[in-house]
Design goal:
Largest sheet: 7 strands, mixed
Distance between the termini: 37 Å
Shape: globular
Number of strands: 11
Helix content: under 10%
Structural class: mainly beta
Oligomer: single chain
Order of helices and strands: EEEEEEEEEEE
Length: 124
Amino acid sequence: VQLQASGGGLVQAGGSLRLSCQASGRTINSFTVGWFRQAPGKEREFVAAIRGTSTDTDYAISVKGRFTISRDNAKNTAYLQMDNLQPEDTAVYYCAGKMYNVGIAYYADQYGSWGRGTLVTVSS
């Protein structure tokens, strides 16, 4: 599967962005999709995931209640709706796919497919 992330940009604190993860080569609801982010000088960290073959989701504590992950099967696309963005959310955001044992996974090395990152910058 190939994944392409888009939708990043510059937003003021308190604003919103929606990231998209377009999949090709496999239907989006047949694998687990995760969003990760990496801020300058920091390690890549888990943000959210939606389980393959179901609608189970989970979030990092730092984004729970502000971010929503979803999936549109007709468009073969996953989304990350980000509301009430804060400067600490500034990072490059990546979408990733976990093809086997399609439970939610929290570590980057559990995902085998990655899209290019999209930069999110939140100004104070």
